Amino acid sequence: MIDLDYLEYLEGFLTDNRKENFLKVLKNRTNHFTVVVEDVFQMHNASAVMRSCEVFGVQNMNVIEQRFGKRIDKQIAMGAQKWVDITPFDSVNNCIDTLKSKGYQIIATTPHTNDCDLEDFDFSKPSALCFGTEKEGLSEEIMQKADGFLKIPMVGFTESLNISVSAAIILQNLTNRLRNSDISWQLTEAQILEKRLDWARKSIKDIKRIEVRYFEKN
């Protein structure tokens, strides 16, 4: 449970404009969709996907690092890592099992015999949208565990798009359709309070000293 007095105390260090921006952004945040990136060799691509999550209001991103060590490319992400929740996993099984336990259907974004065009995709169920490596695509593990397959229709000679471009196209389409639907897609009040506290802490430079002062008084 969020300590509302503590939240009020921290937000006292923020400008009114920043607090208003937090509320405005949080109104458009969703957990209805989450994103999974698997073993993306080029880190700037994973960082660009994170940036798309932030821009289109997807609050959570999951990173499977089964083969490559990773770090967030801060220049590409352009601060998105402060506002998007990143969950790392060391295996496909851990990631997929965790997301399924939270009620997500697993959607592999890849051409497949049973795939669905983006415009025809039924987004009514909470969905984990999975994106694979630049050259190899998604692993056979994810393909076998997927509940559905989604593709971007293409009419040119080129048969694939860069992962960050694919993610941006899919997220823009699905989040726009979601916000224009009757689905209950927004964060709960408890989740909004949690993010207000998290973002307030990340916005205060000397947060450790300020927290010590607060807890000594209380």
TrEMBL record:
Q: Which UniProt keywords apply?
A: Methyltransferase, RNA-binding, S-adenosyl-L-methionine, Transferase, tRNA processing, tRNA-binding
Keyword tRNA processing present in the record's keywords: the answer is yes
Positions that bind S-adenosyl-L-methionine? T109, I152, L161
Q: What reaction is this protein's catalytic activity?
A: guanosine(18) in tRNA + S-adenosyl-L-methionine = 2'-O-methylguanosine(18) in tRNA + S-adenosyl-L-homocysteine + H(+)
List each copy of the tRNA/rRNA methyltransferase SpoU type domain by range.
Answer: 33-171
Q: Which Pfam families match?
A: SpoU_methylase
Under Enzyme Commission nomenclature, its number is 2.1.1.34
> What does the similarity note say?
Belongs to the class IV-like SAM-binding methyltransferase superfamily. RNA methyltransferase TrmH family.
Task: Report what the protein is called.
Answer: tRNA (guanosine(18)-2'-O)-methyltransferase
Q: Which species is the source of this protein?
A: Flavobacterium polysaccharolyticum
Source organism phylogeny = Bacteria, Pseudomonadati, Bacteroidota, Flavobacteriia, Flavobacteriales
Gene label: trmH
